[in-house]
Specification:
The complex is a heterodimer of chains A (about 120) and B (about 220). Chain A starts with a helix and ends in a 6-residue tail after the last helix. Chain A has 4 helices and no strands. Chain A is mostly helical. Chain B is an alpha/beta fold and about 220 residues long. Helix content of chain B is about 35%, strand content about 25%. Chain B is built from 7 helices and 7 strands. Chain B is globular. The two termini of chain B are about 25 Å apart. The chains are: A mainly alpha (about 120), B alpha/beta (about 220). At the A-B interface, helix 2, helix 3 and helix 4 of A face helix 1, helix 2, helix 5, strand 6 and strand 7 of B.
């Protein structure tokens, strides 16, 4: 389980920022004129793609899978939500950041559970 | 030697340290230090790459480091010179290892079997060059059984394998299929990054080496 402040803060910022950025993009791109199902699916792909790009940037400083998996999940989820909501940009960004932090917390909890079940090497 | 794979990793050598050298290595440092602290006897390190892991090796070890990419090995030389022990670098594919049977006490890998084209074949070669009871210690990333991570890793693999590793391999199963006895699987991050400890069962018959095949 990650306990180093550098990575804890880095993970938190990356997921929060990714959620906010994806929410801003998807709220701007998708209007109420889009059919909701199509907007949700398209938002999911746009959010995942943006999340992947942001994760690639952050991975240089913060690690590979530890950044990629939660950030892409954030992108996917926020993309779906933001593409189908009629929120104002600032509200959408705040909501996206919140979802990003939520995804990170859930990922940390799952990671903790997996670690508790893990094996230990005995020569 | 698999020339396609060799060219892929020769191309990746230039930016390899930038992409993997800071965040990932810092993140994984405590796990790798603990893993490599298990080194003793005659050690084979498969896919030593640019030698990023050398700084985590305990001092005074006798290690043979192999890699498919000559360019990666060129970059590794500087790190090898600074290591307080013996590291012999060899340019070879894991499938083509020509060491006699039962040469090594231990084999270590670090993000290796995500890229070896025939993982079970490569692992069988490692079983051959390990002594009976010899240890295989692997730091590897694999697929996941959890949604949405499994879907992401499956979707990204066809894209990423063109210039890098595969993201959805089941390396633990591959280790078993190659005839190793898996002793423990320690999670590093989720069920994706893990440390696999396995041994060559005593009394098991090694996979035949090219030499033994010819002579039989």
């Amino acid at each position: 389980m990650e306990k180093r402040p550098y990575f804890l803060i880095g993970d938190l910022l990356t997921n929060g920022v990714a959620g906010a950025v994806v929410a801003l993009i998807c709220t701007s791109v998708f209007s109420e004129a889009w059919p909701p199902t199509l907007a949700m699916v398209a938002g999911m792909f746009v959010g995942s793609a943006v999340g992947m790009l942001l994760a690639m940037l952050a991975s240089v400083a913060l690690g590979a899978f530890e950044v990629m998996l939660p950030v892409m999940t954030t992108g996917m989820l926020v993309g779906m939500l933001a593409a189908t909501s009629a929120a104002a940009l600032t509200e959408a960004a705040a909501g996206g950041a919140l979802v990003g932090v939520g995804v990170l917390v859930l990922t940390y909890l799952l990671n903790g559970r997996i670690h508790r079940q893990g094996g230990t090497w005995t020569p | 030697m698999d020339s396609l794979n060799q060219r892929k990793w020769d191309r990746a050598a230039r930016t390899y340290d930038l992409m993997n050298g800071s965040g990932a290595e810092r993140r994984w440092e405590p796990y790798k230090r603990r893993l490599f602290s298990l080194m003793w006897g005659k050690v084979l390190f498969v896919a030593i790459g640019t030698g990023q892991d050398i700084r985590f090796f305990p001092a005074r070890q006798n290690i043979v480091g192999v890699d498919i990419s000559a360019r990666m090995l060129e970059l590794a030389r500087r790190r090898v010179e600074g290591y307080p022990g013996t590291i012999e670098l060899r340019h070879t594919d894991v499938h083509d290892l020509d060491d006699p049977d039962a040469t090594y006490d231990q084999v270590f890998t670090s993000c290796t079997f995500c890229s070896v084209p025939d993982p079970v074949g490569g692992l069988s070669v490692l079983r051959r060059v390990l002594k009976p009871g010899g240890q295989l210690h692997m730091f590897e990333h694999t697929g996941s059984r959890y949604f949405p991570f499994n879907a992401m890793l499956n979707l990204l693999t066809p894209l990423v394998r063109r210039f890098g590793p595969e993201l959805n391999r089941d390396t633990v199963t591959n280790v078993r299929r190659a005839g190793f006895e898996v002793r423990s699987v320690d999670p590093v991050y989720l069920d994706v990054i893990k440390i696999i400890h396995a041994v060559v069962p005593r009394g098991s018959v090694s996979a035949p080496s090219p030499t033994s095949t010819l002579s039989s």
